[in-house]
Amino acid sequence: MPAMQAVSFAGDLFSQGPRTLIDDAEGGCVYTPAFVDAACADAWFAALRDTIEWRQWSRPMYDRVVEVPRLTSGYALDGTVELPEALAQVAERIATHAGVPFTHVGCNFYRDGNDSVAPHNDKLATLIPGHPIVLLSLGEARRMEIRAKRPPRRVVRIDLESGSLLSMSHAMQSGYDHGIPKTKVAVGPRISLAFRVRPPKDNT
């Protein structure tokens, strides 16, 4: 079996601007540090922590029901629902920057190092081809692992810092999984906002 190739990126390596982590015909995966400054990131984090309607979901796993290891929420961006003020500000800033007509934002609240999301890719049927998924991170930095599905199964590890932006192409969802693993290191809370373009039937 071919050896797994691992590449890690520390946050300070990205202080000079965006970096392409994975390249493909649709833009691949690009990490942009300090998309917003620290003061703005801190203000947005506090406001979103207190105004988003966070939910704790449960799901069946094997012979038991377990809690999803993070709090979640989501909002349509088509004007049918009123967004928390801070979230409306974020959505406008992201859409203007990316030039993408996002229809939905998924919100995740990682309370500490025990909260996580398992390796996965976004289901292509829930996305409109050609548009990226854009992720804004606020709060404590957490490490994302991006794993190729095919040999040599390259692994990219990147610390998602507060105020940073990560863009992942639609095409990338076919070849890579991404996730936020648990950590034993003491870390504070983090909020991630994932902006997507969904077909009308999924825009709820």
User: What share of the residues does DSSP label as strand, in percent?
Assistant: 35-45%
Give the name of the CATH architecture: Sandwich
Q: In which range does the helix fraction lie?
A: 10-25%
CATH class: Mainly Beta
Structural class: alpha+beta
Overall mean pLDDT score?
Answer: 91
Biggest sheet architecture? 7 strands, antiparallel
Global Rg: 17 Å
Secondary-structure element string? EEEHEEEHEEEEEEHEE
Fourth-level CATH superfamily: Alpha-ketoglutarate-dependent dioxygenase AlkB-like
Low-confidence stretches: none
Strand arrangement within the widest β-sheet reads 2-3-12-9-14-7-6
Characterise the protein shown here:
With 204 residues, the protein is an alpha+beta fold. It has a single domain (6-202), classed as Jelly Rolls (Sandwich). It is built from three helices and 14 strands. Strands 2-3-12-9-14-7-6 form a seven-stranded antiparallel beta sheet. The chain has a five-stranded mixed beta sheet with strand order 1-11-10-13-8. Strands 4-5 form a two-stranded antiparallel ribbon. Strand 10 and strand 11 (155-160) form a beta hairpin. Helix 1 (38-51) packs across helix 2 (85-98). The model has no long low-confidence stretch (mean pLDDT 91).
